[in-house]
Amino acid sequence: AHLDRIAAVDAGVHAFLHVDAEGALAQAAESDARRAAGEARHLLDGVPIAVKDVLATQGLPTTCGSKILEGWVPPYDATVVRRIKDAGLPILGKTNMDEFAMGSSTEHSAYGPTRNPWDQTRIPGGSGGGSAAAVAAFEAPLALGTDTGGSIRQPGAVTGTVGVKPTYGGVSRYGLVALANSLDQVGPVTRTVLDSALLHELIGGHDPLDSTSVDAPVGAYVEAARQGATGDLAGLRVGVIKELAGDGWQAGVMARFAETVELLEKLGAEVTEISCPTFVHAMATYYLILPAECSSNLAKFDAMRYGLRVVPEGDPSAEAVMRATRDAGFGDEVKRRIMIGTYALSSGYYDAYYGQAQKVRTLISRDFAAAFESVDVLVSPTSPTTAFPLGEKLDDPLAMYLQDLATIPANLAGVPGISVPAGLADEDGLPVGFQVLAPALADERLYRVGAAVE
Ligand code: GLN
């Protein structure tokens, strides 16, 4: 049914870069046989899933939305991919994304943009617009995304789906092509909070192949979601982040946010306003740390080891091949960040930029720690606006970066966050996302609160 749906709508939505109909049907048939024999491996055995094209899938192309990886077929599975395969989830295909996960609209994909199923003239968010659009358009019931600065939560917000960024280290990054190693997390993209909880329990947990993986038991997310769904939040302390409102925040977004906060109060939560003064510096901090890490990560695309290789006529030297390949293989946004990162890391500038950003990062973590002394969760709108028209911010990187104002602090501090649908904005009838943030390793709280308000 999902393959039929993909065939019917994906020419317009363009959520997928690669559909593996044959593989998915074979996996589904095996799952049917297991179920008939009463041997299902997991509650989700047989439930199809779409995978963001930044996660390595053995035997299936993995492009990261980039020309430089066109035609690369990984010889191994990411740990999260292995876990969903072992549980029997058929993989429908690989979803579209901004090149190397840099962007907030999926327009930076080298393979053309994904369109928002709510209004195909608008963006589906990014960088994981493909995963969110696939779930919103009923092309897949579940998807995997990755969130470095908001790429699961912001697409969730603008497509009316649920997206979770787990605690840093809570889900393995092995086989995730790194954008920024200290910020990246894999997480679920689904239509309900309970579905995210189920998927998170499946993909979460320690992995010896990822040195930053936390060696702690997986939380009881499903249980927390069920508890939240009863609508009882008596005694829960909720902090509304003061800095994430005001100029530039769409009226319809703020109205749905305020209503959801009222709902929390009705369900028994104690709501207070909390100031996190350093959050206003989160964007500037992120756009030094992320380019620094990604400029180093992307050095491996040297025309020798993976994908594309361009040999300029008359000069087959290694340096010329490298230059020509990187020039042809990387898009503008990727080049912009490599240049910013290389500059910020260069000797003489390192302390002024990268070193300074690391200090501010620590202050942001301290703001979180101080806030979580007096509240259990923090809340904000996920994104300042609803889905904007395709092309609107493409020539204005700063305007694009501002989409992630509310999501970036969680990545800098490593804390978990969820975006749940909060209704439609009055002025344009488009989905609004409500963000809940919790302390590190307290991901259960996201599911409890998320399920109570969805
Ligand atoms: N939009 C942000 C960026 O461009 C977030 C990316 C992400 O989370 N992968 O960096």
TrEMBL record:
This is Glutamyl-tRNA(Gln) amidotransferase subunit A. Heterotrimer of A, B and C subunits. The gene is gatA. Allows the formation of correctly charged Gln-tRNA(Gln) through the transamidation of misacylated Glu-tRNA(Gln) in organisms which lack glutaminyl-tRNA synthetase. The reaction takes place in the presence of glutamine and ATP through an activated gamma-phospho-Glu-tRNA(Gln). GO terms for cellular component: glutamyl-tRNA(Gln) amidotransferase complex. Residues 1-446 form the Amidase domain. GO terms for biological process: translation. Signal peptide: none annotated. It comes from the Bacteria. It catalyses: L-glutamyl-tRNA(Gln) + L-glutamine + ATP + H2O = L-glutaminyl-tRNA(Gln) + L-glutamate + ADP + phosphate + H(+). Belongs to the amidase family. GatA subfamily. The lineage of its organism: Bacteria, Bacillati, Actinomycetota, Actinomycetes, Propionibacteriales. The active site is at K52, S127, S151. Its EC number is 6.3.5.7. Keywords: ATP-binding, Ligase, Nucleotide-binding, Protein biosynthesis, Transferase. One of its GO terms (molecular function) is transferase activity. The keyword Transferase applies. InterPro entries: Amidase, Amidase_CS, Amidase_dom, AS_sf, GatA.
